[in-house]
Amino acid sequence: MNVPADLRHITDTSEIPSTSRPTERSAAAAREKIFPYRFPRDRRQLGGKFSVEENSRRLRRFFYFERRLMHALGAWTLSIPEFEVKLETGRHIFYHADAARLLRERLTEQEMRVKDIDAFRDAAIDRFIDELLSATNPAELLVGIHQVAGRALETAYRHHIDDTDPVTDPPTIRVLKRVLTDYEPMLEWAEEAIAAYIEGGVDESQIAGWRWHLQRVLGSIGGVTGADERNPEPTPMRIDAKAFQRGTVPLRDVRFETFKHTGEYDVADGTERFPKDSYENLRLRFIRTQRDEVDAIEAFGTFLWDIRFIDFQAEYDLARITWDEARHTEIGHRALLAAGYDPFELRNRLTGSTCRGPMEPAYAMAEINLFGEVGVLKTINGLIDTAREKDDALLAHVADFIRADERTHVRKGQHILKCMTNLGAQELELKTRQLFTECLVSLGAVKQDMDIFTVSREDIERLVGE
CATH classification of 52-241, choosing from 1.25.40, 1.10.357, 1.20.910, 1.10.12? Predict the structure, then answer.
């Protein structure tokens, strides 16, 4: 083939030659010379390892991992006794949910439909998650969630940032950097928490063996990207011997004294600390109720597991509410300290969580949304007004933020309930009232000879509380 003389310097036949004109180039150089500003130079270069298709394939796996980790943490919320770990789990559920949301949004920008993203399943990833869930204690759970899956995702995100095109794909880079903002403190906390378990007596060799096992399971599916070299699946697999089932009993660590035979703090304590209708009594009850929203972390986390894959927005809202309830628990704990108490000197109410644990999620959710949260909103305005009149800055401050959260929860709860059940509002409320009354009778919180419909809405709000 005859190649024109002015193109003979091109060795790559796919390269398209430029037709730059000397007069135009020199004119451009002259204009640039008189331009007075020397802005920072953009050092990014065109190029990257991924096409849109490959980018989307990897992001879809990242999305699925984040969604499954959100589910997995939710499944364990009842079964974690340690207060600090339960709190952090409530927070981390939302971190994974928010990562999934960001990745899902980016995928819609790369020519994927939301319904296809939400419908994506991967049996190999599911098998890894199922094995991870088979942890024998919370320390093993943290190892699987954070030291194996979390660290692998963090590494994959950093590599993806380095390998994708910084000029054509900055939206993906920004998403992953935002996710890493949550990952860094989350993984650092997990390292310290696992070290605390070991220092407190958990067998380090057991932890190390479980970590190695799960790393091999993850390696057998090609890692989080699915593109890594695969090793054989290790044997035996715990999941093959026994399928995972979430817990139904709320657990607390040894620092707590608990009660479930009543919803009344004065009854549980054996005597009242302040006169029943006094401001001091209402104040302490409100703060204790917030500390005891540790049971709401369990409730919403469990709902996440129970309704997984039904509706992503419902999952996301549940995850956000779980984080809010973790904050409410922290607020209550710290407010008790600020009020002069050792929070662990005050008994922890398990009544609501004991009832909800084994219950179908729609009724358990209805108890919180239709009774607990609505009940809080009935009284919190007056409580805040009284606190301000009495110049009680502590209660006015914390209750103001809690009120805003509860209003949001009531609103979001309506969509979540619609995803859980087809029952009408009246039928759902009646059945929920019946089931909770039966549970309260079984716990001794109400008299056994009472008709199941004689316990009022207000009684349930008071006895179960949120």
Answer: 1.20.910
